[in-house]
Here is the input.
Amino acid sequence: MRTATIQRNTKETQITLTLNLDGSGKCEVKNPIGFFDHMLSAFCKHGMFDLTGELKGDLEVDQHHLIEDTGIALGQAFAKALGDCAGIYRAGFFIYPMDESLLQASVDFGGRGFCVCNPQLTGIPLVSISANGQESSFQTDCFEDFWQGFASSARCNIHLDTIRGRSDHHKMEGLFKAAARAIRQAVEIDQRRNGEIPSTKGVIV
Here is the structure.
């Protein structure tokens, strides 16, 4: 089983995540940020990853700490579940169309963390109404914080680009879906590799 459980407890956030790389696309994470919950659900659905857990953080400050730390914890879960990366494809690429937007993601689990993020967002928060009728929002500038945290702790290169688009909602959701599909390609087992580490070095570092 390629699974991992990560706990991240700081003075700012308390995060528990359990990841199954070979899941069925279920996301059962207690998440206080509505749009972010939507993004994680889309990521799991399109990547066929199972993710459970709970996210808590100092939202009275802002959303940055919780969203970035979730990216870090999720990246750690991928790194732990992949181990030495033996037998996987290692790299993946996907272009995802979402209405007027066209989004591209490329990833390489090569052992070095680097994120290039070009979502072309307006920076205007997305506003929503919660179940109890209260207005809430999503800080769009935290989108890149999530993926930077993920790349550094998953030890992968990831490039996220908006090719074209108008809606910030569509750009972010399409990039989460494109990333999920690219990551799914990268972490799947390559039967032709016969369990070997996918590097001429003989090790992923």
Summary: The longest strand covers residues 13-20. DSSP finds four helices and ten strands in the chain.
